[in-house]
Amino acid sequence: MPNESTPSGRTGRPRSAAADAAILAATRDALVELGWSKLTMGDVSARAGVAKTTLYRRWAGKNELVVDAVAELFDSLELPDRGCLEADVENVVLQFAALLRRPEARTALMAVVAESTRDPALRDRIRSAIVDRQKRLVVLGRERAQARGELPREPDEAVAERTTDLIFDVIAGTVVHRALVSSEPVDDLWAASFTALLMHGLRGSAGA
Amino acid sequence: MPNESTPSGRTGRPRSAAADAAILAATRDALVELGWSKLTMGDVSARAGVAKTTLYRRWAGKNELVVDAVAELFDSLELPDRGCLEADVENVVLQFAALLRRPEARTALMAVVAESTRDPALRDRIRSAIVDRQKRLVVLGRERAQARGELPREPDEAVAERTTDLIFDVIAGTVVHRALVSSEPVDDLWAASFTALLMHGLRGSAGA
Amino acid sequence: MPNESTPSGRTGRPRSAAADAAILAATRDALVELGWSKLTMGDVSARAGVAKTTLYRRWAGKNELVVDAVAELFDSLELPDRGCLEADVENVVLQFAALLRRPEARTALMAVVAESTRDPALRDRIRSAIVDRQKRLVVLGRERAQARGELPREPDEAVAERTTDLIFDVIAGTVVHRALVSSEPVDDLWAASFTALLMHGLRGSAGA
Amino acid sequence: MPNESTPSGRTGRPRSAAADAAILAATRDALVELGWSKLTMGDVSARAGVAKTTLYRRWAGKNELVVDAVAELFDSLELPDRGCLEADVENVVLQFAALLRRPEARTALMAVVAESTRDPALRDRIRSAIVDRQKRLVVLGRERAQARGELPREPDEAVAERTTDLIFDVIAGTVVHRALVSSEPVDDLWAASFTALLMHGLRGSAGA
DNA sequence: GATTAAACGAGACGGTACGTCCGGTCTTGTG
DNA sequence: CACAAGACCGGACGTACCGTCTCGTTTAATC
């Protein structure tokens, strides 16, 4: 995960595993203190107690480094069984909002996405390190709801995948937009409104 | 809009109005060619045939400049009456997706949002120049649907505003996430699926 | 003299004259403290209170900078009339030796000559800034000796120039070799021996 | 000669003798191709097919390595008996000039001398490896000339040594200065002029 | 023949300097 | 006063070498 292009040769001094961890931790610290745009490679290497060359030997640049540093934050998201689909959705929305309140996640996520618009390799990295990994939450939530009888089973595999993607984009996109673009708080009330909308649609009940 | 702190003095040579337009156009061109991160103030000033000092006299920095340069792109979004709510939603989704296919919008939008996580003034500028202006589309769509009887009228003004915000975040956020984070195409099929979900909710019909 | 390729454009802010002087002085200080090989451009710019870019705008690199910084040291050499040729020669030998005792001259002179073996432009710069300027001492000494009747007049101009060059190489080369290669002191005794040899040749008198 | 501090332990794998030769040859090659300042230890080790550690085990640094690599070039100088002192001097001048036309000698000699101005150990190494070894030429030439009756015998040993040193500095210094500082060719004509001056002194004959 | 201890290749490591680029400010002269 | 031009200070960039350090692998001399 951490490195760039492993030389895989078995001769020579092996790369320090401790350095990887120190660098990623230093990167997160620097993101908290400085934010994306003022984070510098030199500063990260200094914080990690590591030479700049060591850093560049493993990551091609700031973008790749930050994606890896931030990706694992998303692994903390969980989906405990709250008994019904509404509660599960509301819970994951609030968890995600809490994550987006962390300064390192706020500043880094949008920045790497912005950079990725011009860099296909970075785009792939984001997808594999963040997006695809968190789709597990949607998959799990759907299976659970289907087991409860709250949602019908998908007969077709391809349709199931497209639905997973759609739900993921709706939930993640809406929360990110609320939190970072509209800059409004994601609180319990809003989470309930959003969950209701997601459950019943615009025409469903009152609409709010 | 363009300037930073109006000098308001009535004496001396007045600022060139042509310069503003040239600078914003140059900024958009540079965004297309270079993307956000490689765009430089010096380059913009050179493209615009303007001295760097002239540029800094009007905008405080790259962030402010790019917000202004990009904001007006969003004004091109329209909401022609397609006869029913589904069609109106689907249309605005596809329009927004087309906008996000423009390189200057792709690269700039996420970048300024990323910067805004650490800069309240920039956050406000984004909100007033982009977010709030485009909420008109939701307001208009809702009013039209209510006139058609597709949606109930909101008795309470505050609730109406919260609903507007929510719908805006859902639509804009989901499309942005699909296009820029998941990096998947927003085509007619997807737009239809998303619209269906938005109309009827997860429990509504088939769920896709 | 100081700069590299004067832009000669008359618009824009003119280059600071004070910066040139500060840079050359800083260079000499750094040579004294650090010697040629540990002198860095960054250190010079810091000592001079000047940005690195300012330094590179005027000199192409360390070599060119040091030649200019050191060249003017050689202008301190003088040739007061001591009454006879022997005394004049002995005096200039001792002056040159004193100059080569200065750390900045010692370390810089040989270093730039070493670099010049691979850089024709630097070779020319050394010749014009140092070598040719100091030949004046030989020319003056010869004229004075000829006036005194100690040396015959040269009928041919070309021969005169070749003789000037030869004498210059003998005196300067011998002193430099004694001081820097053989690493032996150039004291009064040695200066007298050398002068005697130069006057009368190996076969002349005792030979020492 | 090659190594730094002999380990003298009698057990363990002995140092490869072939490596020494390969390293010195690689150093000379690199000097020819790159010159002193662009020669790097890593490059030398790669050319020699040797690890950097092997190189550093034997030489303390670039300076020491280059002195050793270049010193033996000077051993090629010889003093065949040309029948008279003038001819012998002229011959050695031309030989030395030919040596200074070799790029590895040109670039290395001045560079190590420059470095030696700040490094007494290097100064000693140059003196013992180069200077003192070549004084044999002066000693031999003097003895031969004395045997021919061209020069008087020195009664005093100390005076003899001082004279040897002086003549060495005059010849070596002048040729080096002509070739490397003044950057003028050392051809037959110049060699004859210099020899004449050395024989008869400024007052001797015509002076050129 | 087994042991042993150093030399060896490979290459990662913490540093330092490089020369370039950009950000933002300032100082000219001109309009 | 605005403006074009461009010099200025500061600071980060990504690269190149430095000299050191770990690795696993030879290679002789000693046992």
From TrEMBL, chains A, B, C, D:
Ranges where the HTH tetR-type domain occurs: 17-77
PROSITE patterns in the record: HTH_TETR_2 (PS50977)
Keyword Glycosyltransferase belongs to the record: no
Protein origin, superkingdom: Bacteria
Keywords from the UniProt entry: DNA-binding, Transcription, Transcription regulation
InterPro entries: Homeodomain-like_sf, HTH-type_TetR-like_transc_reg, HTH_TetR, Tet_transcr_reg_TetR-rel_C_sf, TetR_C
DNA-binding positions: 40-59
Gene3D superfamilies named in the record: Homeodomain-like, Tetracycline Repressor, domain 2
Name the record gives this protein: TetR/AcrR family transcriptional regulator
